[in-house]
Structures are given as structure tokens and as C-alpha cells.
Amino acid sequence: MSPQRASADRLARFAVSPARQRKDRLARVGVLTGTAIALVPLVLIVYYLLRKGLGAWSTSFFTTDPTGNTFFGSSSIGGIKSAILGTVEIVALASAIAVPIGIGVAVWLVEYGKNSWFANTVRFFVDVLTGVPSIVFGLFVYIVLVVGTGSTYAGYKGSIALSLLMLPVVIRSAEVILLLVPAALRESALALGAPRWRVIFSIVLPTALPGMVTGVLLAVARAAGETAPLLFTAAATLKTNFNLGGFMNSLPVQIYKDVTSPTTAVVNRAWGAALTLVVMILLLNLIARLIARRSRLA
Amino acid sequence: MEAASIPRGDRGLLSRSPLARLPDRALKYGLTALAGLILALIVYFFVRLVGEARPAFAKEGVPSFVFGNDWNVGAEHFGALPLLVGTLITSALALLIGVPVAVAAAVYATELCPLRLRAPLTMLVELLAAVPSVVYGLWGIFFLAPKLQGAEQWLADRLSFIPFIGGGLVTIPNYFITGLVLAIMILPIVSAISREVMATVPADQKEAALGLGATRWEMIRLAVLPYCRSGIVGGAMLGLGRAIGETIAVTILIGDAPRLGHHLFAQGYSLAAAIANEFGEAQGLHRSALFAAGLVLFVLTLLVNGVARLLVMRAARGTRSGSAGEEPGGDVTLLADAAAGA
């Protein structure tokens, strides 16, 4: 027996046995199948949404208010103008509330609170907020602003419910980004004699800006798709309304109302509205990702 | 002019005038107040919710409100068991179906996938998080549920020997289809967290396993999965929290029948669905009962999320002690939250 042959035999003892090879292959196939299964719903949703949604889209779909009339076919039910504008208005106000407060709290956590017990308590409670179901926020705003003031639904009340929902996302994503701002930058500014507030406003915030914008846009995208908190705060209505103090329609609520309709044309309007909403949210996500890629941090 | 620029009195050469220090103080105390406000808000929230729920609890008693099997609006009798059971069944189903698929996708993306495909694959799974709840409901009730009804009936017939699962007539809205859609909805967050946790497994540990002659699967099973077990469980719990609190998709898909379904393929109700469905017309005691249901839901998600955060934090801390200089604990979940929460 040649020496090469002998060493090959010895090596063969270490080779992976067929049983283990089979197991490995089986597991790989299993994992691959799982991944494929994860992608199936996405494909189905996108396909169906495009097929049904594009069919409902037309110019008048975007330029008319829903009429509330559901008995005379697609020509008389109207479009979703008030819902689109309502969503934009409600979400814009919600962002105007949640973003300054959220970034303020994040700055406090990173620059002042650090690891004090108070800061950790705030962090814990913000995490609690993250887990609260969106409908419970709706209930809260209902208790405080509808029962509490003895008045009725209004667009701005929906905005407040959504801002509560956005707050934890904004705070925690901004905190992560602010932590990434190099300590050396802060220290150089302080060493040059800048007061703390100038360091925050001229050094820390501008450096963290692109990253924070990403977090904010993701929070906005999340809020835009929420239905539950709007049900008993902003209500549903037909007419376009630019007054946030009145009832206000929104895309998710409009879809929810239309789903339960027995009329096919109304359900088709729900598909069109759903596609509109998904396109809006995807655009926000896309912009968020592009900005994140540009960011020098993270 | 020379004299004017030299500070006098007891102030040092380098210290700022009290006036110049004012904005600094204002900012510090202002921001602290803001942070305190958040705490106050949550406490206030909880107190008000308990206050509004009290009449219902007072009438039924807390245990018989939570575990009473009778949700009868007409008779003003409120036992939330059918709601609670609906919430728990559908969320459990979502975990059962969603977690293995999510973990498989995470394993594939981090360990087996060609590098070029990793980013697109991750992005595709995360796209699922961008679809709003109401759209899942719409898609589920008009596409998935009718398409699967036949298959569900077949399954129900085969499983008819198991009580509470099989047998009976399959309706289009039911517990099973709700759980299935919830599984799709929690996929992105569970997958994102699993992926983040798997990415923290030290490369030398994996290489050591391969160097000892492990096949790829053995490496995953022996070096990767045990290392991130608590992180994955934590991610699953966060998914569970989402599933429990999910409202609109469930309201559309579960059938909104205020009683216990007799089997898995029957219509039912959930806590969140009851609130969304009935709150608009509710008055008096009924409204209070819905607030009480909201409180039960709130406490339930609080418990689940608390356990989840603890597990994920422990997983992240375990990593940190392994390799120094990593980013602070918890951040793994935060980034994943921000990514999947959209």
C-alpha cells in the first residue's frame, strides 16, 4: 500500500458520513423552503393589490369625494379625495407634535439623562409605549379629549392619538442615532468654549440629522397606515375638510368602512384606496432608506 | 477697551456670565420636564383607563369579567372570556406558523444566502411591515380566506377527531385564517430581530464549529441557534405582543361573533376587535365594559412585552461580554423595531 493511499484512507475516516450529508441537505432545503414561504404572501399581496387597485384608479377616483351613495354602481360612489387629504393633514399634524417632543426627549436621554435612574425609567416607559396596542391609544384620546371635553370627534384628536403612537419610535430611533455621534466631536466643541446648548444645536443635531430623518419617516409611515386609533377620534366622513377641528376622513378608515360593504363597486374602491395608501407608505420608506444610506453615521 | 474684556469680580477668566448660562439651564430643565411629562402621561393614561373601566368591573367582578363566558350586550352582561380566548388562540397560531418561517428566513439570510442576495432578501421580508393592517384585512377576507376555504374544510375534516380543532363547518372568517394573517404580519419583526441577533454570533465560534468538521447545518444548530436562543424567543414575544394588540385585520377576519367558537375554523371575537366593532355605538355600562376589555388588553401586552424586552436585552448583554466594544445592549432590538415597525 502506497503512503498516499494510506493517508487517503485515514482521511476518509474524517469525511462527512452520508447520513450527516443527507441531514445537512435536508436542513438546507427546509430553511430555503421556509424563506420561500415567507416571500409568498408578499408576492400575493402585491399582485392582488396591483390587479384590483389599478382597476379602481382613475382621475375622478382621486379628484372626487366619496358620496356615501352605494346603490347605483361605480359611477355614483365617488372617489377618495377627502380620505387622501385627511390622511395627509392628520399625519402632518401628528408629526408636528411627535417629532419635536420625541427628539427633545432623545436629546435629553443622550446628553443629560445618560444612565441615571430617571433616564432609565423614562426609557422603560417609552418601551412600554411601544408595546401598547394602537387601539388603546384611541381609547385614551377618546377618554381625555372626547369625554373629557364633552365634545365630539375631530381631526386633531386623531393626530394626537397617532402622535402618541409615533412618539416611542421617534424617541428610540433618534436616541440610537444620537449615541452614534462621536464623543470627540462634542468634546472638541466644548473645549473650544461652546456652551452645551450650542454643542447640541450646532454639532450634535446636524450630525445626527439624516439618521433622525430616517427614524422619523419610518414613524410617519407607521402612523399613516393606522386605522384603529382614528376610529373614535377623527371618525369617518365624506367631505373634504381642511379644518382639523372637524370630523375628518382618512384612507385607512375609509378602507375599513368600505371592506364591510356588500356592494362590489365599494369594495373595489377599498382596493384602490389600499393601493394608494401602500404606495404612499412605500414612498416614505424608500426615502427613509435613501437618506439612511447617505448618512455618515451608522 | 482692553479693560472691558477682562472679567472682573469673583468670576474666573474662563467662566461665562450668568446671563450666557441661561439658555443652557433652560434647555436642560426644559428637556427634563419633557421627559418627565412622558412618564406623567403614561401614569395618567393608566389611571383614567382604570377609572373608566371601573363600573364594568364593579358590576361583574374582575374574575367573572375576565373569565365569564357570556358577552351579551342586550342583557348588559359582560364576560370577556370569548374575547380573551379569541385573542389568545389567534396570537398563539400566529406564533406557531410565523416564528419557524421567520427564523428560517433569518437563518437563510445570515448563514446560507449568497452575499449578493442578502440585502434584497432582507428588504423583501421587511416590505411586509410596510403593508398597513387594514390592507391585510382586505386582502385576507377577499383573497386568502375564500381561496383557502376548501383546504381548511379538508383539514377540519381530517382533524375532526381532535376536539376544539377539527370537525364542523368552515366559515370564511374564522380563528385559523386570522392566525394565518397575523403570522404574516409578525413575520418581519420576528425575522428582523432574529437576523440582528444571529449577526452578533462571533465568527470565530462559527469557524471553530466548521473547523471541527461540522457541516453547515450542524454549525447552525450547534454554534448559531443556541447562542441566540433567548434573542429569538424575545423577538417571538415581541411578535406575540403585536399579534395580541392587532385590531383592524382581526376585526375584519375573525367574524365578530360574540361567543366562543366551537373549533378552530369557527367564527369568534377578540378583545381588540370587540372594541373596534362596538365602541361606536356603545353607551353606559357597555362602553365601560369595552374600556375594561381595553385594560385587559393593555395589561396582557404589557406582560408579554416586558418578558420579551428582558429576554432580548439578556441576549444582547451576553453578546457584549463576549466581544468588547460592541454597541450598547438593547440597541439591537431598537434598530430592528425601527426597521420592522414601519
Overview of this protein structure:
The complex is a heterodimer of chains A (298) and B (342). Chain A has helices spanning 3-14, 18-56, 59-63, 74-77, 81-113, 117-131, 134-147, 155-180, 183-191, 196-224, 228-231, 251-259, 264-294. Chain A is mostly helical and 298 residues long. Chain A folds into two domains: 3-56; 74-294, MetI-like (MetI-like fold), CATH 1.10.3720. In chain A, helix 7 crosses helix 8 and helix 12 (251-259) runs antiparallel to helix 13 (264-294). In chain A, 47% of the residues are buried. The mean pLDDT of chain A is 86. Chain B is an all-alpha fold. Chain B has a single domain (80-340), classed as MetI-like (MetI-like fold). Chain B has helices at residues 2-5, 18-60, 62-67, 81-112, 115-127, 133-158, 175-199, 203-211, 216-224, 229-245, 248-253, 271-278, 284-322, 331-340, and strands at 71-72, 77-78. A two-stranded antiparallel ribbon of chain B has the order 1-2. In chain B, helix 10 packs antiparallel against helix 13. Residues 320-342 of chain B have low confidence and may be disordered.
What distance separates the N and C termini of chain A? 60 Å
Beta-strand share of residues of chain A = under 5%
Which strand order do you get reading across the main beta sheet of chain B?
A: 1-2
SSE pattern of chain B: HHHEEHHHHHHHHHHH
**Assembly state:** heterodimer
Helix content of chain B: over 70%
Q: What Rg of chain A is obtained from the alpha carbons, in whole angstroms? A: 27 Å
* Number of individual domains of chain B: 1
Number of strands of chain B: 2
Compute the CA-based radius of gyration of chain B: 26 Å
Query: What fold name stands as the CATH topology of the largest domain in chain A?
Result: MetI-like fold
